[in-house]
Amino acid sequence: MEKTTQPHHTKTKIIGLAGLAGVGKDTALTLLKTQQPTAGMAFADPMRAMLEALFTHTGTPRRYMQHRKCKEAVIPQLGVSYRRMAQTLGTEWGRQCLGEDFWTRIAAARLASLQQMRWDVICITDVRTAAEAAWVRSQGGLIWHIHRTQATPVLAHITEQMPFLA
Q1: End-to-end alpha-carbon separation of the chain, Å?
Q2: pLDDT at residue 62 above 60?
Q3: 129 three-state secondary structure
Q4: Is 122 helix (H, G, I), strand (E, B) or coil?
Q5: Coil/strand/helix, residue 141
Q6: Taking the model in full, what pTM does it have?
Q7: Residue 111: left (phi > 0), alpha (psi -120 to 50), or beta?
Q8: What is the Cα–Cα distance from 65 to 48, expressed in whole angstroms?
Q9: Which pLDDT tens digit goes with each residue over 133-155?
Q10: Cα separations in angstroms, 127 against 6, 44, 131
Q11: Mean pLDDT across the chain, nearest whole number?
């Protein structure tokens, strides 16, 4: 990531992107980056890092994390899909075992780090829950909901419901 080079920095804009898997949230971040200095982050970044360590340990190919169709497929050596692991790591383990604000506390530390780097815009690409949306708003951010009718549903889970307004 590059820092902004503007001599006079105004307050960082925070944008949270909400929408089902596959609607184009990462594409929206890419487009934002073409318009102004924008840093991307996700609540799921630490979950991906944790699961990547598991994949390394078990010799699981990265394609199960990287390719949309593979994310839904059961991984033979693990007996579960990447999507299911990520969903339950975030909710059933993270939020239920460690506290509803577990991932927002981690996101707060990352956001503070990016703000110190003086980014013009920070885009959070995976706002999935009402608590995450409330947290983004509490940081002065806006929620943008992305909808694409061609997106096909993924594994049903509470994080695919998005019970909040954008």
Answers
A1: 27
A2: yes
A3: coil
A4: strand
A5: coil
A6: 0.80
A7: alpha
A8: 8
A9: 999 999 999 999 998 777 666 55
A10: 28, 9, 9
A11: 87
